[in-house]
Write a structure and sequence with these properties.
Elements: E1 2-5, E2 8-11, H1 22-26, E3 29-37, E4 40-41, H2 44-57, H3 66-79, E5 85-92, E6 109-116, H4 123-127, E7 129-135, H5 150-161, E8 166-171, E9 174-178, E10 182-186, E11 192-194, H6 205-216, E12 221-223, H7 228-232, E13 236-241, E14 245-252, E15 255-256, H8 264-278
This protein binds pyridoxal-5'-phosphate.
């Protein structure tokens, strides 16, 4: 695999970062993951917007112009012959002797790589998954997409060990989001419900796309928080992310959702999303 590291495209074994990189020492870095389908990036403008917003929130300068980042992503897709999978990119604040206070004028490190994997029509998307419930133990600026992900690593492992496909995190009696996804439910009268964007969760790019699809197809949408109990009693539940698209949730904790099969609204949104992702893109 060819990867991008600090200005150069190199074989992955030749890519090196300093042990003093602040991403390594402090998690002082932000990242993005863009899905690739048929060799084309999906929702990449939204991912780049969020990348810039995360960097600005941490006062990390964008090391290369946005157009150059797009060129690097595209080049990795071509060089690795990637038809389906993801492009990961990360910017860390840079390298300095270890100190919580960072010096002015560091030069930020950009790395990027591709991962080949099946994204569309996966067994999880066809059959749905079970999600565990766990207290959200992360910091309070979850709207910034930082590389500081141990909360999710721990909770996802715990969920796996308990036999679940993933976990929905809970704070103040309300679902915040999935370990790496946005949580949705559908009410008995057919309204699609998800939390409004705030500091408690990452503003999902796939969430944004799904909200746009609800709007363009005349589906009723409600942006409000919901409790685990409301989710367990909902007509349908699903989650969204760049790498899992729209994935049905058929059990939450020990409660089966409706008849335990992916619901019709979820199926409809899956189809709309795939159609938009595969459809013609602006040149
Ligand atoms: N929430 C968290 C914590 C995430 O890590 C992710 C994606 O990785 C999402 C939500 C979904 O965001 P997106 O749809 O932009 O992939």
């Amino acid at each position: 695999r060819v990867v991008y590291c600090k200005g150069a495209f190199v074989p992955e074994g030749d890519a090196h970062l300093s042990i003093f990189d602040r991403g390594f020492l402090f998690g002082d870095a932000v990242y993005e993951v863009t899905a690739v389908l048929g060799g084309q990036m999906i929702d990449n403008d939204a991912h780049l917007d969020r990348f810039e917003r995360s960097l600005a929130a941490l006062a990390i300068p964008l090391p290369v112009p946005r157009a150059e980042i797009e060129r690097i992503q595209a080049e990795l897709i071509v060089q690795n012959n990637l038809a389906e999978g993801t492009v990961y990119m990360q910017v860390s604040r840079g390298e300095a002797d270890r100190d919580f206070l960072y010096p002015e004028g560091l030069s930020a490190n950009l790395v990027a790589f591709t991962q080949a994997r099946k994204l569309a029509d996966t067994p999880s998307q066809k059959n749905g998954i079970a999600v565990d419930l766990a207290a959200d133990l992360r910091w309070q600026r979850r709207d910034i997409k930082t590389a500081m992900l141990l909360g999710q690593v721990l909770l996802k492992h715990q969920a796996r060990a308990n036999g679940f496909g993933d976990v929905w995190m809970v704070e103040d009696g309300l679902v915040t989001e999935g370990s790496s996804s946005t949580a949705f439910i559908v009410t008995a009268d057919g309204r699609v419900v998800t939390r409004p964007n705030s500091h408690v969760a990452l503003p999902g790019c796939t969430r944004k796309a799904v909200l746009r699809l609800c709007d363009s197809h005349g589906l009723r949408l409600e942006e409000r928080p919901f409790s685990p109990a409301e989710a367990q009693g909902a007509a349908e539940a699903f989650l969204t992310s760049a790498s899992s698209f729209v994935t049905p949730v058929i059990r939450i904790g020990d409660v089966t959702i409706a008849d335990g099969k992916p619901g019709p609204m979820t199926r409809q949104l899956q189809a709309y999303y795939l159609e938009a992702a595969r459809g013609p893109r602006p040149a």
